[in-house]
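Weekly sync notes, structure subgroup
Attendees: PM, AL, DS (notes)

Item 1: joint prediction request from the bench team. They want all two components modeled as one assembly rather than separately. Inputs as received:
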Amino acid sequence: MNFRKPTGGAIDRNTVLRFTFNGQLLTGHPGDTLASALLANGVHEVGSSVKLGRPRGIVAAGSEDPTSLVQIETPYSEPMLLATTVELFDGLEARGLAGQGRLSPEPDPARYDAKHEHCDVLVVGAGPAGLVAALTAARSGARVVLVDEQNQAGGALLGVDEYLDDRPSAEWVADIVAELKTTPGVLVLERTTAFGMYQDGFVLALQKRTDHLGFAAPASVARQRVWRIRTKQTVLATGAHERPVVFANNDRPGIMLASSARTFLHRYGVLPGSRAVVFTTNDSAYCAAIDLAESGVDIPLIVDARPEAPARLATECAARGIEVRAGHVVTGTEGSSRVTDVHVAPLGDGHPDTVVCDTLLVSGGWNPVVSLFSQARGKLRYDSSLGAFVPGEELASVRVAGSATGELDLNACARQGRDAGAAAVVAAGFTPGGQVPLPVSDSRCTQRTGLVLWRVPGDEDASFVDLQRDATVTDVLRATGAGLRSLEHIKRYTTIGTAHDQGKTSGMIAAGIVAEALGVELADQRPTTFRPPYTSVSFAALAGRDRGELHDPVRVTAIHRWHVAHGALFENVAQWKRPWYYPRDGEDLHAAVLRECRATRESVGMMDGSTLGKIDVQGRDAGKFLDMLYTNMMSTLKVGRIRYGVMCGVDGMVIDDGTVIRVGEERFLVTTTTGNAAKILDWMEEWLQTEWPHLDVHCTSVTEHWATIPLVGPKSRDVLAAVAPSLDVSNEAFEFMTWHDTRVAGVPARVCRISFSGELAYEINVTAWHGLAVWEALMEAGSPYGITPYGTETMHVLRAEKGYPIIGQETDATVTPQDLGMSWAVSKKKPDFIGKRSFSRAENLRTDRKQLVGLLPVDPNVLLPEGSQIVETDRLPEPPVRMLGHVTSSYPSAALGRTFALALVRSGHERVGETLYVPVEDALVPVTVTESVLYDKEGARRDG
Amino acid sequence: MTVSPLFAWTDRLAALPVNASERPFLSQLTVRASDPAAIAAMGAVLGVGFPAVPCTFTAGSGEFGDVEVLWLGPDEFLVVAAPDLQIPIEEALRGALGSARGSVVDTSAQRTTVVLEGPHVRDVLAHGCSVDLHPSAAPAGTCVQTLLARTGVILLVTGADSVTLLVRSSVAEYLAAWLSDACVEYQT
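Output from the run, pasted for the record:
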């Protein structure tokens, strides 16, 4: 059956679009939505309900529709779209859903992006009120953004055949849009839904830019865009949604909102059926009835719940052979996949009469769309004549105009738009320009308020309040019967208003039924809170371009390219890519690391240490400041020397460590761990700005100014001598923990004698620009010694063999310097430093704290998994099992010829020599507790 | 012998509709000072006054050639000049600072500089920058520290259709990749 009228509607009948629905090949036209095209083909049953499996159809014509959920299969698989908001395109494949969709396991190849926009006045909604508001604002010279969710401006005018100022309303709309689009500083965004309104004029809007193009969408154009709009003033002209009345079996396909049927007629040239009964509580449905009758739909009856029908409209109906029964209601329906009969009875009681039909149009009044106003923290007020919540206060920067206020007369709506637009530009600091004339409508239906009727008594199990959630009057009454009174609680108990439509058609009715059941006034009830998003937004759109390589910035050093070219595998350390190890042919991690360790301990290795945090600390009080930050004394350090330092939080727990280089009397350079560089700079700034503003100290990050190359191993002195001919590298001239400025490979360099491996080692610092060249010069100079580049894994093994902790690996914010065996780094002389007071807390003095020790598995080939627990006995007792601690680091060691581990163990320092056990899979592995330093305990290797 | 963070991106950046180009190796010094006399003295040695208005930069010419001074915070500035001048400028600034509270640090290699030009610059940046770059809100002379996509930048508005970005060296390639991606819709 074809329900398309031969003429009328904003569709292009000369072009045929082919699409499939549930496997059936159908056609439509450009301008159609999937819903209008289905209705044109006589298809009302779209899917079935989520819990009860009842057939469900199309209730509304727009985004308020609760039921027409479909899954789009091509060109992108997308679940849970509303047929009423999917613009038809050629080749569309869709399926009706049983309440739930399915996410595609395939990656979404489409492009999504975001854009920031700033304006003086944002107008949401391009209906009559919004258009007049936007034009009023635009004529003042303000920066204006107008967003509208439809593919064309007009709002409610799109669904009627009204004439404005004696010409089709579309012409009036087109003139305003044309002026807006040619006014500088005005941005008109179609297909754009403002879905979230936040504080200080921040509004999020989703623009569907190429969805409607289907397969013709260019891949380079973002399919959807999230607009992040910051506005000084906002005019909400968001319109109103018609709401239904609840009655028994009110969910059958073919039952739709009267104004939506009118929209399908006028906007798409589609008739909802052949024979339609109309059930209304107000005047507006009469216009739908008359328009449909004039288009050839048989309208046998208008059921008006009001005691008296409106005289003039009733006369017009009589002239068209439409019977009007005032004081009557629809009490139920028949049918399975489509409504076939309607039961009509006098309101109150009396015998029902049955009327045959294939369509039932319902109007229970109008709900102003107050979602964004409510999100902006605007208070709502119950309007008892409308039976709806309306904006209940004025906000400083948010104005509401048009039917969103509850006003339903077109001229009055446009006037509100003009007033709101003018007030907004004045508030934004502009002077209103030329006044926009207000249109005069020829509409028959000017008075739209009527009787407030939430439901018709009947089978409560089949009286659906929220069609998408399959929630009925029974569910609401069960909630109130259980003692729930708050709408928020009832919403959660019944799930009404929590589906994709967020209760656009059901929320107000639920509130009304609750009030009736409780015998309270709705004016005393608080409506449920509106929250973003107003309509569904896909995660892909929210992610935008922040995916793949742009998901998180990757930080690389100046030498990164060399590491890539030489086959390094990388480890992520914070946002940095650090070389992990450099495998040679066939080597796995262990083989490569054993080789890198051996080469470094026996000859010379080097690594890229550029990621270390570096902070320049300058000022007269720099030494005093560092004394407060570190547990050990820094102010006594002599210029030219270096000291290792530990930093604690106020709780006395280690937060970072590094070296402090005294560059001058009033200048230090401190290093931090790679991952903590920004945090430690913030920490320093916080203390300086909040507690010690009197200190003459300034801190500046120089992390990326320097490339840092540790050169490590007994042959490092020879390599350094080769590239730094002007530097006396002898042990006497260049002592451990001192630094010298010199030239390395011809460029200015600062060389520090620091070791994180126990070997003779230097740390060469040059500007990042020179990093690669100096690295390559060192590789060349070191080639006679087989110089070996090594990565973070080898660094970890070398330092672990020496018992040096890594902050964040050996520590977890519960570890003191004393626990790490570093009492030597905690000053006894300093009057104060951060964390000092906490060291005397009873908890921190306990001898059974977890302390850092070494573990040697009795079987030297067993590698303990890091994170393993440690227990006392060789057999597990009944739970609960007392855990003594855990393994923090564990490696095979080339230098030790065996595996080893570091661990935090209760009373660990007292347990040296004990045998403990580590559960590994089903076995308990015996381990011997040792001191944490396992290699070169005498420090004989330090000077080469 | 020197390698800039974006040397591998030169051609790709130039092909973008925002005509992006790296200006590597500029001399950059981070200055912290709040004493008005010291700030005036430092401006005098550079031949360009330090910016007095937050979120602006000043430009001028003097003993060290063309110099820009960027306002980064109430007591923080970045002095930018041609390459290879960082050492004499640091000495000159330190001398001008004298005994006043403050610091001067060579941070030349900490950031690299990317210049964008053309009618699409503001649109492209609006995809990742929440600051209002409309000429009425951000005229030439504007200098802000902000996020561009997911990394921090110093953004200078240098003309009607030109913007200079200073970005940390380690994330310069991320920024270049982001810029290339953001330009996709503006390619002709």
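Discussion: The first strand of chain B starts at residue 21 and ends at 22.
Action: AL to compare against the crosslinking data before next sync.
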